[in-house]
Amino acid sequence: MTSFEHVRDNLAAAMEAIERAAGSVGRDPGEVRVVAVTKNHPPQAVRAAAQAGIRIVGENRVQEAMEKRRELQDLDVQWIMIGHLQRNKVRKALETFHQVHTVDSLELASSLNRVLMETPDARCPVLMEVNISGEASKHGVSPDLAQPLGEMILSRCERLELRGLFGVGPLVDDQARIRASFASLRRLRDQLEAALGIHLPELSMGMSSDYPLAVMEGSTMVRLGTCLFGPRRGF
Ligand SMILES: *Cc1c(COP(=O)(O)O)cnc(C)c1O
């Protein structure tokens, strides 16, 4: 059985790195929350993270998250969908997750909205996933289509609460290029706030390999898997 006894120390080290990165650009580190990414780790990983103080858990697959939640009903954590969501999984996703951070098409937004409409007052906070890496394999709306998608979500999907943007940096070694992609997501957020006339406080960007750069560019949610839990072993 895998032990997760190092999660507390690993989280403390990540918090220190976040403080340093935030301090270097004059940001308040309290603006940055850690999303513990527990995909491919067993339920004990989620429990260890919660015991270390984690309050937000990110999972990539609906089925895997459902199974973990069933075993962890006593935990007081928010479950967030950070993987590509297929439309036929929307109903189960809404039963499993408190928020969906990977909305990247009007079809997906409309499906979420339609299911939410079945329940009076049901709402779901969402982020729009934007492809900031330019890599064709990545999901996310292209930056030039972010504003039209935002307008559609606001006008047609009244049950979705658009809170900000989500991005994955390019898988390269060039730190300047990674940082530039995070800066581009922040600028896009600022443009959308002006164009749509709404507040978009959340910027989910940064993973184990690049989160200090993301914090320097305004991230409010860093998604950390490997640096908290070690390599993914399968679940
Ligand atoms: C797996 C994953 C992460 C965590 O990646 P690490 O490199 O292990 O920190 C973050 N964001 C998304 C979207 C992921 O799929």
Bound molecules: pyridoxal-5'-phosphate
Structural class: alpha/beta
What is the class in the CATH system?
A: Alpha Beta
The total beta strand count reads 8
Approximate shape: globular
Biggest sheet strand order reads 7-6-5-4-3-2-1-8
Number of helices: 9
| Order of H and E elements | HEHEHEHEHEHEHEHEH
Family: Belongs to the pyridoxal phosphate-binding protein YggS/PROSC family.
Protein name: Pyridoxal phosphate homeostasis protein
Pfam family, one: Ala_racemase_N
InterPro entries: Ala_racemase_N (IPR001608), PLP-binding_barrel (IPR029066), PyrdxlP_homeostasis (IPR011078)
Account of the 3D structure:
The protein has 235 residues and is an alpha/beta fold. It has one domain (7-19, 30-229): Alpha-Beta Barrel (TIM Barrel). The chain is 42% helix and 16% strand. The chain has helices spanning 7-24, 43-51, 62-71, 90-96, 106-117, 146-156, 175-196, 211-216, 226-229, and strands at residues 33-37, 56-59, 78-81, 99-103, 124-129, 160-166, 202-204, 221-224. The chain has an eight-stranded parallel beta sheet. α6 (146-156) crosses α7 (175-196). The longest helix is centred in the C-terminal third of the chain and has 22 residues, at 175-196. The N and C termini lie close together (12 Å). Bound molecules: pyridoxal-5'-phosphate. The site of pyridoxal-5'-phosphate (PLP) has 13 residues, from β8 and α9.
SSE inventory with pairings:
Blueprint lengths: L6 H18 L8 E5 L5 H9 L4 E4 L2 H10 L6 E4 L8 H7 L2 E5 L2 H12 L6 E6 L16 H11 L3 E7 L8 H22 L5 E3 L6 H6 L4 E4 L1 H4 L6
Parallel strand pairs: 1-2, 1-8, 2-3, 3-4, 4-5, 5-6, 6-7
Helix pairs in contact: 6-7
The structure holds pyridoxal-5'-phosphate.
